[in-house]
Amino acid sequence: MDATSTCDRREDLVAYLYGECEAEERERIEAHLAACERCAAEVDGLRSVRRSLAAWAPPEADLGFRIVSDLPRREAPWWRRVGSRPAWGVAAAACVAAAFVLGVLDVRWEGDGVVIRLGRAAGGGASAEVTGPAEVAAPAVPVTAGAPEAVDDVLMRRIGTLIEQSERRQQQEFATRLLALAQEFELQRREDQMRVQQEVGALADYLVRVSGP
Amino acid sequence: MAITDDQLVALAAGGDTDAFNQLVVRWERPIFALAYRVLGQEDDARDVCQEAFLRAFRSIGGFKGQAKFSSWLYRIALNLCRDWIRRERRVTMVAPPVDADTGPLDILADPDSYASEEAVMRRELGRAVERIMAGLPEEQRTAIVLKEYHGLTFQEIADLQGCPLSTVKTRVYQGLAALRGHLERRGIRPGTALPERRPSPFSRLTAVRDSE
Ligand SMILES: [Zn+2]
Fold this sequence. Notes:
The structure holds two protein chains of two kinds. By secondary structure, chain A is mostly helical. Chain A has two domains: 3-51, no CATH class; 78-211, no CATH class. Chain A is 60% helix and 6% strand. In chain A, strand 1 and strand 2 (114-118) form a beta hairpin. In chain A, helix 3 (23-35) crosses helix 4 and helix 6 crosses helix 7. Chain A is rod-shaped and about 120 Å long. Chain B has helices spanning 5-13, 17-39, 42-59, 69-87, 89-93, 106-109, 111-116, 118-135, 138-148, 154-161, 165-185, 201-211. In chain B, helix 1 (5-13) packs across helix 2, helix 2 (17-39) crosses helix 4 (69-87) and helix 3 (42-59) packs across helix 4 (69-87). The termini of chain B are far apart. At the A-B interface, helix 2, helix 4 and helix 7 of A face helix 2, helix 3, helix 8, helix 9 and helix 11 of B.
């Protein structure tokens, strides 16, 4: 074994210093250190530096980072999802359900079909027509050529019963749907916010680079 | 049995934010410490740490466990550190020259006084190390930090630094040798940098009484 090559191989001493060499290699180096004062002093010096390094502690920083959003990361953005999952359809259905529950639908026979208006006639105020003839409620209503008044009464009673029967279920469904809708919009809002922050950060970085020397 | 990083990663990749936050709790201190020792600035280290976790969170779905989660996180954090250093080179350049500092390190070389003020000495020594480390080339500093404070193997460091194993060992050796030279010039002889022999209880008592 040649002593000079060991003296020259500082990499080996470093591996030995950190206990990262095979047993055989360790024995070889220890034998050399016992014989070579220069290398022994070198290892002592490095050990001393390691003890000094132990005195360097990072400051007690207030960390506590937490990811607070629950973003649907792998989903397409909402504007691309609307086609396959009709968010606005859900919204419309939710509004109709709400109108039923709140009793603000004005349903009446108007000669050529059923017209549903928002805002019950009792309120007397402006009513917004939301659907054309017959499409919304007609399937449940036998439209006959009877007197308009009578049909109107039958229709109202029928719908009143339907509303009563399904009120609880609709309220639950409405609540669920509104909740889902609200969550979806909230998530999107957060995602947009994050993206805006990133853009602003990137812009700031760019400005720093640009304004640098 | 405690849940492993790998298990938490799998949950987080499936959209479990709480699982990811558990990983944050586990790793925020080491990542902050890494960034702090590489950058030397507390605020910047905090920013890098936060950004590292945000990036990890965004791309955890693509992390297939080809490496340890911690190695992956270290890589993200080190890349951010490198970007930061490139951007802030001017600031790094104006850091106080290591040897111009005339801090009260004489206390370290005087065996009688250091025995009574271990805590003060340790803090001063820590500051000295910090200043000297800041003056080392970035590759040497990072290699030493990863080895000394994070216990990575030389091979892991080589993977992170993208260099041969032997280069990492050389970087660590050169960095340690430079540190040794600076410390010795400041009067810290090898073997006395930290008190290996404890002062007797009586000398400690005397020291406390004297200081009151
Ligand atoms: Zn030798």
